Each structure stands twice: as C-alpha cells, then as structure tokens.
Give the backbone structure.
Amino acid sequence: MSQSTPTRRGADFYILAAFFGLFVLFLYGPMLMIFILSFQGPTGGLTFPMRGVSTHWFHDLWSSSRYGDLGGAFRRSLILGVMAMLITATVCLFAALGFRRRFWGAGPIFYLSIISLIVPGILLGLGISQLFQILGLRLSWWLSGLGAHLSWTLPFGLLIMFAVLNRFDGSWEEAARDAGAHPWQVLRLVTVPILFPGLIAVALFGFTLSYDEMPRSLLTVGGKNTLPIEISNMTTNVTTPALYAIGTVTSAVSFLVIALAFAGIAIIQRQRSRAKRGKN
Amino acid sequence: MTEQSRIDIRQVTKLYGRAKAVNNVDLTIDGGAYCCMIGPSGCGKTTLLRMIAGHETPTSGTISIGGTDVTTTRTGSRGTALMFQNYALFPHLSLTDNVAFSLRVKGVRADERRQAAREMLERVQLLHLADRVPSELSGGQQQRVALARALINKPKVLLLDEPLSALDEFLRLKMRVELKRLQNDLGITFIHVTHTQPEAIALADQVVVMDHGLIEQAASPREIYNRPHSPYVARFMGGQNVLSGRVESTDGATAVVAGPNGLTYDLSVGPEVRSGQELRFSVRRDRIGTTTGAVPRNGLSGTVTNIEYQGTFVKVALDTGLDEEFIIYMDDEAYFARPRDVGEVVHAEWNPALNHHLPGANNSAGTPHED
C-alpha cells in the first residue's frame, strides 16, 4: 500500500536502514562465523583464515575422548528440555485458565510466581543447592536441575499464555457447556484445540529456555553436567575448532525444534482449512 | 409441547457482590410463547436469560421449566439452548461439526451426527457451505449456523441474547421474520433479549419490560404499548407523551386533574386514587388533534421546536414549558393541508378517553438505545 506513493526516501530512511543493518550484522555475524569455522580443515585453528574445508571436527567430537562426556551432556540437556517443555506447557495452560477467574489472592500469587524471573539465576541456583543440602537431598540434574529450569520457564510460559488467552473468547466454552459438554469435554474439544498454536509456542519457549540455561544450572545439576556447562568448560580447555563444531550442532538442534514446532502449527492450520476446500 | 416448555420464575434474585442484577423477579412464560425481554443495558435482562440457560445460578428463588425445578440443573441438560450475542461459533470446526457439537458430546456416532447436522444446515439454507469454517461466513450466515447449532438438540426453550444486534438494518428485518416463522414451525418457547422496541413489539406474544433488576411490566405488546404501567414504560416503549398533575376531585372512576400550565384533564382512575394526590398519565402521540382558538380542556399548547417528516406521518415537537417535549404524530395529509412553522404556537387537543393513568412509580427517562 505504501509503495503506491512514489515519494523520495529521506535521510531518516537511510539512517534507520543502516542502524538495522548493523543490528542484523551483530545478531547473525557471530553465529555465521562459528558455523563457517566449524568446517575448518584438520590443520586449521580457532581463527581465520580457513585451512581447507572439512567435517573433521564434527568427527573429532564423536571419536575423541578429549572433550569429556559431551554425548551424555547433550542427552541430559535434551531430556531436561523435554521435561521442562511438557511441565511448562501443562502447568502454564491450567494456571492461565485459572487466573481468568479473579480468585482471592490472585494478584499476590501472580507476582510471587513472576519474581523468579527477576532474581539473578546464579543466586537462585545457589539457593536451591542450599535448600537441597538442608533437606538432605542430593543434587541431580533431573530433580534440582529441573526445578531450577522450571523457575525460569514457568513464569515465562505463564506470561506468554496470558497473551494467548487475551484473544480467547470465553463464550466458546459457554457455548460448549450449553451444548451439554462436561468440563473435561469442554477442555478437550474446545479450549485446548483453539489454544493449541499458542500452547506450542509456550512449549517451544519451555524447551529452548531450558536447553540453553546456564546460570541456574551451574550449582544445581550435581555431578553430571548439562550441555551449556560442558561447552562453557570446553571454552577454557579446548583449543581446536571442535568447539565451533559443538556450537553448530547445538544450534542445529535448536533450529530443528523450532522447525518442528512450526510444522506442527502448519499441520493444524492445514487440517482446519481442509474443511475450507470442501467436498461438495 | 406447550406445558413442558412453560417457564416459571419465582422470587429470583441475583446478587453480584452487593449489586442486585435481578431483584426478586416473578414471571411466568407460557409454553410455546415468543417472549421478548427488553430494557436498557444493565437492567438485568441478560442475567435473567443466563439464569434460565443455567450459565448463572440465582442467589435465591427458583426457576422451573415444564414444572420441573431446574434452578441448579446443569447447563445443557435442562432443555434449553442459548444463542449467543456474538454467536460463539467454534473457530476450529467446520459448520457441520459446529452444528453437530452437542451430538458429539452426547456420544452420537460420527456419520449419524454429521447427517443430522447436514439436515439442520439444509433447514437454514447453508448446506452448500457445510465444510467451511465460521470465519469464512458473513454475519447473517454465522447467525443461521448458531441457530442450527442451538436447535439440533431439539430444545424445549430457545434463548436468544440480542440475536439481531450485530446485523445491518436490512438483514435485521429479514431475520426477524425468519425467527418468528421458525418459532411458529417449532412451537417451542422463544425468549429473546433485545433493547430495540420495534423488535419486541413485532415479535413477541409477551413483552417483559425491565429496569434496574425489576420487571416493570409483563404483558402483550398491545397492552404494553397502549396501557403502559409506569412513566418509564411509556417513555421507553415510545409513542406516548407523559404528563403530570394533581387530582382535584374524584368519584372513584373518573378524576379531574389539574395539569401543568393551569389546564384541566379528565382521567379514568381506580378507587385507590385520592383527591389531592400527584399522578402521571400518558397520551398517545398519534391520537392528538389540533385546534384554533382557546386551549380546550384535555389539551395543551406550545411552540413548535422541530418538524420531522416520517413518510406516513409528521412528527411535530412542541415546547410547552415543561421538561419533556410534547410530541404530536400528525397524519401527513392533515399536516400538509395546513403546514406549521418552527416557532408557531399550536394548540393540541384530544379525546379524554385517551388519557391513561400511569400507576407505576418508575419515572426514569427510559432513554432507549442507552447502549
């Protein structure tokens, strides 16, 4: 629409365009460097220039024992991410549905649940490890680590779910009840299907926030590290492009998860619009 | 059918905090009747409707349908179906599945319920769109889907929450006719909430006028229009001038009333009216004539402030020195035989039999279309 008016672009356009260009460069430049450098030749180093192109360092990641328990850390982070994702999506759905009723104490409960977004993650991790010690429990990635991650993903997911529910019309549920649906049927046939795209977004955030989380993990995972901690350790004692290779692999996993989520949303929308084309 | 779709509302009150949305309401709606509930927004008409549907529970009182107390019966199993103001069609389901929804929750087999839904869609002339989703439909089409979805369960009572308010004028009149025809065909009770007077008068067998959680009057449209109970009903339903005066003398059936501006009126009253009492009465705007010469008994004089041609009649507004304008609907031929000008003095007169005593106390302005 705006292109139909052939006006000359002023200086402001070019200034803002340059600013945006810098922003994009800053955002994607570093990532791109790591992708490129991870394909460094076998004799190459941590910096440019490239000495040939190879997938040597990816093989090195798998075969060499110099990098510690990288596979185990990767597996733990994946499992942790999936657990955080499932719990976040489920809890945030019901919490946000619950918050629609202005129940007594709703305000304080909301602020209490948001507060862990504000507390520095490393301090929260310290607190959790202290608490576990007092309770006489051993720190482990799947318990104290999961709790630490949930303190981050739950409030985040709740805020997103609020935004999703903003566009949800409560009279859909009333119409379902009016048609005789029991509460469980209302949830299964109306509420969840209509909210599903938003629910996928919340799940996605739950996974990626957990998968990348470092400060909250440091003091809470116990004896076995998650992937971000393992990579952080690598930066201090690995001096080969294998470091970049692991960066490329983890980024690929993140992108894969996002792609799967979008594919999920697309499939749902296709199912909904399949009715459109009609059979008669 | 008629007995089992009769509705008895007994001493129903609904409190929201301390506010009385519905205040000790008693109402009987005959089975198979078309009932319109009308009033300004916030008068309690929608709350009452939602209590009949079971989406709200009365704070006290009982609601019976067909003689069965359903006050606390679950929504969806009391024989009612509600058509929502915004239609509330499920955005993720095709029209067929929208209409079949209540059969689905009952556990009816997929092919069976789809067949029933398609028959219902055919009835509202939307079968050709059966596989579309609601967002692809016009407002009028969406409304017909909502109607089909409400009717598929064969309800005893169909509840309609401002069903025509989202439609344009042309479609509104068309759907009004369709609703009335549908109600005649089905023979079930329709309860229709509206804030539009012509809609209520045109459709209803029974009009329920509400204000501030109370029923001001429940009667046939003709009764409501001709014999309003209170100044509020007279003003809200329109077509009436409301005047006030003090009773000078009464013989128990006819009172002589001293009106504003020192004029005198003869008014039929009940024996409860006492001499010296202040009262209000109404006069239909379309039954008022004009006269030259002195202002007669049962008349009023004022200066013309506005003239509106309405096609079949001419609306002449007079400033009579009172708070309210006095309005005359003049026959268009009579008017154009002797047109008036703004600022001209007009003497109005009418048959004293037209003076209608308003016993009700509610004197609010009853401005229509407050929302």
